[in-house]
Amino acid sequence: MIRVTRKAEFSASHFYHNPNFSAEENRRIFGKCNNPHGHGHNYVLEVTVAGEPDPDTGMVLDLKELKDILQREVMDRMDHRHLNYEVPELAGQIPTCENIAAVIWRLLEPKITKGRLDRVRLYESPDLFADCTAEASGAKDGDRGPQHTGAQP
Amino acid sequence: MTQPLNISLTRRYRFSASHRLHSAKFSEEENHRLYGKCSNPHGHGHNYALEVTITGPVDPATGMIANLGDLDPFVGREVLEAFDYRYLNEEVPEFQTSVPTTEIVTREIYRRLSKFPKARVERVRIEETSNNSFEIVEESPVNVKTTA
């Protein structure tokens, strides 16, 4: 099995706020990320696909195809957007690195038809990243992915 | 059915410290042969990079596995304050009886960080230089599963 990783970068703004918390709790829990005007990051996305190389092409999948999928599913949705307001898939969730990585997984996973999606790694900064992988099969049922809070910024 | 996902969060820290690789169990000649210039009696230093990976359910109220407002001060207290700008052999008690190779330093840091009360520390990785890195991955507990 070979793992193939493609990298992409996008820039977006966000802030953290849960309407179920008081203003004081929001400030205490989210700190400066709670600034209502938002702030931004240059996100770096690494998408890893695992599979066997096709004997005819030598490729697990065509990286150009993967690039196009990333463009359509992620860049077009998130690049130069405000994640709280402009990405419906994140509605009701705090747009943390953990939740964004899980949303990206769910957008990409059905589109990868050659090989299988192995890992989504999302860097919010060079010093902070989230990894999203499928839970090992055979695990008990239950979704550990992000859950909706009903939160609306 | 939605596919269950594993999410982890990795935070990167830095510290600078000096150390010397030298064991009282070996003769001077053996130390020199084994550790080479790392055995220089006055020690030498590195800019270490430390990666700490936590896993667990993402709290739907915060969108977080654990709040960096808890992780950063914990790592600061347990590791950075004790290691940054220190001579590891002399100033970290655990290394007075062991050789602070980066393997042993990684293990000691993992031991300290595994006590983090807010999430499971799954992995500790240290870059001693840009060419050398060391990591400890917690063996996954079998059939242990937490839910948000």
Write a structural description.
The complex is a heterodimer of chains A (153) and B (148). With 153 residues, chain A is an alpha+beta fold. Chain A has four helices and five strands, in the order βαβαβααββ. In chain A, strands 3-1-2-4-5 form a five-stranded mixed β-sheet. Chain A is elongated. Chain A starts with a strand and ends in a 19-residue tail after the last strand. The relative contact order of chain A is 0.21. About 7% of the residues of chain A have low confidence. Chain B has a single domain, classed as 6-pyruvoyl tetrahydropterin synthase/QueD (Tetrahydropterin Synthase, Chain A, 2-Layer Sandwich), CATH 3.30.479.10. In chain B, 27% of the residues lie in helices and 28% in strands. Chain B contains four helices and five strands. Chain B has a five-stranded mixed β-sheet. In chain B, β4 and β5 form a beta hairpin. The two termini of chain B are 18 Å apart. At the A-B interface, α4 and β5 of A face β1 of B.
